[in-house]
């Protein structure tokens, strides 16, 4: 939640010379996005988001991320459209950083998601999974099992400072997940970070999905499990069954889950909770206080992990096993 | 440079019910303004800034600040216009804070001001001084002599931590300023904080003056001296005579200075440098590292103070005494 790099009007004018967006009218650094610097631009032709990719994003991944948005927007998914430059490319440079200009999507992300929001998110996620089917590029999920192990290797020695007993708890999760992780479920392009601040609504209508900078190829049902974690828990860490039911029904109304995907949801949700707990824990332990990067509490996801360990059946998420 | 308070769509919808601005389309926290939380709103009728007044702003002063913008905009000054609510008032409440909706001004603030910018700022400042003449409300300058003494009382014991010898240097400034401060120069409503980030340009044209939250009644020439400090020094702390000449000529093209105002510029510039050094020093010593409030280096203004102590004549700013 920060602007890491400020830019001058001269830099921006030079950058925009390669685009056909009309005269620059204003630009404001916006307090959204936790990895990159984002500016909201007004030009004679409308509103745009300019993203400067900071060092946490690997430049080699940019063609995948921006190409995916282009592909999905072409399929009618409400996502930002990268603006093409006069030479046809979509990645430029400003202030020494790779940068892209994308269309601005109106809409508000729900600070307090309702079951109706969850249903729409489920539908949109399934639509995204289907629309990505013929996207030609692929990207390995850097935050899958191997990535988790790396993060845990770095964070484990100090994990008990954050919560006594955490290192033993999580060691057990790793052992069980390694044994039970499903290998052969349907996979394809997933969003991998579809939290409420990445989904915009206008009234009850979902108006946009943003921030494709964790998108990759992985299990569809894992993406859905991430949404269960991100959308269906209350501030008191209780799972909201109404929201879970709505999210899953919304998803299935567009892409029905197989019996094996349904069965795998508890272990996938546990893995997804582990993934977000680990990145939060790593940041918590390594980012100095006062840095611009927003640190999120890893304990929120320790709570979700504990919930998922206790799950006996996917029916506890709001879906009946078949 | 931060958003201190986030708001929900529900809170914002309830707030906007009292305004006639059309349907809310989006709102983004913007990384501008160092005292308040600011959001850029798009609605069916256009773009607006929503400002939530945080605790550093005294609520009792809001009618002065907002009334002044209303008054100046009515006189043709390019400044935001507070949007009136259906009951005619301009101050509402959101997230427990007083808040106002103002029109959005297109334009960019100059990260690297040129002499041409300085000339336009001089003209606009003089125009503002003239346009405020018949504004009926008054506000004492809380950051004049008494205010400086209070800040210095709090910061002095630790001033030498920031720069050895600073406490003795500044004690001498206080003694000399108390003796030489001009008492009977023309006064009226001043902006009091007209730094580059508060002035927007579209090309060479000044398109807007914002952030009236230090505005008050004080000496016009003191406001001009603040602009000399804010606009005419280079990153290496050298005074740029070309910019000073342009700023002062621009001002005089709209409101000629009296001989006594010209003569007083060096002492006023020294007082103004002391004022900004003191608020920065106070923040430097009291705001914890990692707080959201941006801390600016007080030493930039120690350098300006030293420059002003050495000034023999206003001609060193780019204006001949008469």
Topology:
The structure is a homodimer of 322-residue chains.
Chain A: H1 9-16, E1 24-29, E2 37-43, E3 46-52, H2 62-74, E4 92-94, E5 97-103, H3 115-131, H4 145-162, H5 166-180, E6 187-190, E7 199-202, E8 205-209, E9 216-219, H6 220-231, H7 241-254, H8 259-286, H9 299-310
Antiparallel strand pairs in A: 1-2, 2-3, 3-5, 4-5, 6-9, 7-8
Helix pairs in contact in A: 3-6, 3-7, 4-5, 4-8, 5-8, 6-7, 6-8, 8-9
What does this 3D model show about the protein?
- The structure is a homodimer.
- Chain A is α+β, with helices and mostly antiparallel strands.
- Chain A has 2 domains: about 10-105, Phosphorylase Kinase, domain 1 (2-Layer Sandwich), CATH 3.30.200; about 115-315, Aminoglycoside phosphotransferase (APH), C-terminal lobe (Aminoglycoside 3'-phosphotransferase, Chain: A, domain 2).
- Helices cover about 45% and strands about 15% of the residues of chain A.
- The first copy, chain A, contains 9 helices and 9 strands.
- Chain A has helices spanning about 10-15, 60-75, 115-130, 145-160, 165-180, 220-230, 240-255, 260-285, 300-310, and strands at about 25-30, 35-45, 45-50, 90-95, 95-105, 185-190, 200, 205-210, 215-220.
- In chain A, the strands form 3 sheets. Chain A has a 5-stranded antiparallel β-sheet with strand order 1-2-3-5-4, with helices on one face. Chain A has a two-stranded antiparallel ribbon with strand order 6-9. A two-stranded antiparallel sheet of chain A has the order 7-8.
- The longest helix of chain A has 28 residues, at about 260-285.
- The interface of A and B includes residues 2 and 104 of A.
């Amino acid at each position: 939640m920060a602007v890491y790099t400020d830019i001058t009007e001269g830099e921006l004018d030079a950058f925009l010379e390669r685009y056909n967006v009309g005269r620059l009218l204003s630009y404001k650094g916006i307090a959204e996005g936790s990895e990159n610097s984002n500016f909201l631009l007004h030009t004679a032709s409308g509103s745009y988001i300019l993203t400067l990719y900071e060092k946490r994003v690997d430049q080699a991944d940019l063609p995948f991320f921006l190409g995916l948005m282009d592909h999905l927007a072409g399929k009618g998914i409400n996502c930002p459209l990268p603006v093409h430059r006069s030479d046809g490319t979509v990645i430029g440079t400003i202030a020494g950083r790779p940068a892209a200009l994308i269309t601005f999507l109106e809409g508000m992300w729900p600070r307090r998601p309702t079951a109706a929001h969850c249903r729409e998110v489920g539908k949109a996620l399934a639509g995204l999974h289907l629309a990505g089917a013929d996207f030609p590029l692929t990207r390995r999920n850097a935050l899958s099992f191997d990535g988790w192990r790396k993060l845990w290797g770095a964070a484990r020695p100090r994990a008990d400072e954050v919560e006594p007993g955490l290192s033993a708890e999580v060691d057990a999760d790793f052992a069980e997940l390694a044994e039970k992780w499903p290998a052969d479920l349907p996979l394809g392009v997933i969003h991998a970070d579809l939290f409420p601040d990445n989904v915009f609504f206008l009234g009850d209508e979902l108006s946009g999905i943003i921030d494709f900078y964790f998108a990759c190829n992985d299990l569809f049902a894992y993406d859905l499990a991430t949404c269960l974690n991100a959308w269906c828990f209350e501030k008191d860490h209780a799972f909201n069954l109404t929201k879970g039911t709505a999210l899953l029904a919304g998803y299935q109304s567009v892409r029905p889950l197989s019996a094996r995907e349904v069965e795998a949801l508890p272990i996938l949700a546990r893995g997804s909770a582990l993934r977000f707990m680990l990145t939060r824990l790593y940041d918590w332990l390594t980012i100095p206080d006062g840095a611009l990067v927003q640190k999120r509490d890893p304990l929120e996801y320790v709570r979700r992990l504990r919930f998922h360990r206790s799950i006996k059946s996917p029916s506890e998420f709001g879906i009946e096993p078949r």
